[in-house]
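Suppose you are handed a protein chain with no further information: no name, no annotation, nothing but its sequence. What can you learn? This example shows the usual starting point.
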Amino acid sequence: MVLTGADIARGSGPTGDPAELRSVVVPLVAVGDVLVRAIAGGDGTMARVAGEEDVGALLGPHVHLFRPDPARLDAWFLAEFMGAEENIAGASTGSTVLTVSPGRLRVPLLPLEEQQQYGEAFRHVHELRAEAQRATRLAEQTARLLAGGLTGGQLLPGRDGATHPQGDDQGPGPGEHRLR
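A reasonable first move is to predict its three-dimensional structure. Written in structure tokens, the prediction is:
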């Protein structure tokens, strides 16, 4: 599979098709690589640290790869500072399509121990963001199932506004009628 800029934005694993790559030599993604979208804009994160789900993926178009030396640079520290909104804005060029110039990205020079403290905090932010996205997907799925149950007749609206399974003993209240 190929890791694309859209995969980074969505926070998903690689979804691209290797047949679409035009280059003969394409680097493979490894755990701890920092991946930065080359095109700014749109929704989603601009940078992330490659995880186990990305290992062995081919680097897709419009993705910059950085492979930090963990003895000198914390990957989470690097990814979050590189992907910060104001940093991306300052490193982008173009009028309609904003291209990120990696050499223009700024990263503070801090001792490794401080980087690791930031990195740990950024990992927690990443986990929060991932759980929020998961909760959103589950809420949308639940709402879709409830609406389908109501329109398909498996669920009926109750007098309290809640949904109830077809055939439960909660009858309509005074002046209410059940739709069948």
